[in-house]
Amino acid sequence: ASSRRHLIVGNWKMNGLSAGSLELAKAVAEGARDVGPAARLVICPPFTQLAAVAKALEGSKVQLGAQDCHQSPSGAHTGDISADMLVDLDVGFVILGHSERRQHHHETDGLVQAKVKAAEKAGLTPIVCVGETAQQRDEGHTLETLGEQISKSLPKDFSGVVAYEPIWAIGSGRSASVKEIDETISHLHDVIGRHLDVDDKSVSILYGGSVTARDAASILSIPAVGGVLVGGASLSAESFLGIARAA
Ligand code: PEP
């Protein structure tokens, strides 16, 4: 626990039908009443549940996020969702460049940057994910990989949030250590200071990768950490709120 404000973001990924999503959102909204002001909560359901979840969150302090958006404002893009469409549903945040999209949808740093610009123009706060593979870490290329992702995925006047998510830690049950998180996120702040035209302290950097209620307090006590991005543990209100209470 500290006096800083932490962003606690839940990424539901491709999980949730109507009934379960509503139940989960309501439980988070209700439980959030007992979470102190040190935690700012955001949940990111799949597109199909955004409208219903927005209603369930009305009057609560939990904010709504999406998991992706298209880089164009509108047009011939079958199956895609624009940033304005998200704003229209009271969405305030959007996760961009998640490693699952970089891997499975071949999203490049350049595409991620185009999406970031579109999101910011529409008034959304982008949460831009970067992270190294196990192989890149083993070969000693972590900082170089992340530096490249940061400098190519973020516009010079970036005003959103970054999430450091080592790919080997996502869904693996093996979170990065406090030392690894501290060193890497401190380095990312340096890279932001060097490559962007913004004060590096103005960019909050979250950690993501197998965060649970058990290790949240130690991660959130790292001064360089601005919050956490939570996948698996955000599908249980109990676990997600447990993480928020550690802020
Ligand atoms: C994620 O994919 O953003 C994530 C952090 O997942 P998990 O918490 O399940 O590792």
TrEMBL record:
GO terms for cellular component: cytosol. It is found in: Cytoplasm. Its main location: cytoplasm. GO terms for biological process: gluconeogenesis; glyceraldehyde-3-phosphate biosynthetic process; glycerol catabolic process; glycolytic process. GO terms for molecular function: triose-phosphate isomerase activity. The keyword Signal does not apply. It comes from the Bacteria. InterPro entries: Aldolase_TIM, TIM_sf, TrioseP_Isoase_bac/euk, Triosephosphate_isomerase, Triosephosphate_isomerase_AS. Transmembrane segments: none annotated. SUPFAM superfamilies: Triosephosphate isomerase (TIM). It is an enzyme of class 5 (isomerase). The active site is at H98 (electrophile), E165 (proton acceptor). Pathway: Carbohydrate degradation; glycolysis; D-glyceraldehyde 3-phosphate from glycerone phosphate: step 1/1; Carbohydrate metabolism; erythritol degradation; Carbohydrate biosynthesis; gluconeogenesis. It catalyses: L-erythrulose 1-phosphate = D-erythrulose 4-phosphate; D-glyceraldehyde 3-phosphate = dihydroxyacetone phosphate. Keywords: Cytoplasm, Gluconeogenesis, Glycolysis, Isomerase. PANTHER family: TRIOSEPHOSPHATE ISOMERASE. Belongs to the triosephosphate isomerase family. Homodimer. Involved in the gluconeogenesis. Catalyzes stereospecifically the conversion of dihydroxyacetone phosphate (DHAP) to D-glyceraldehyde-3-phosphate (G3P). This is Triosephosphate isomerase. It comes from Kozakia baliensis.
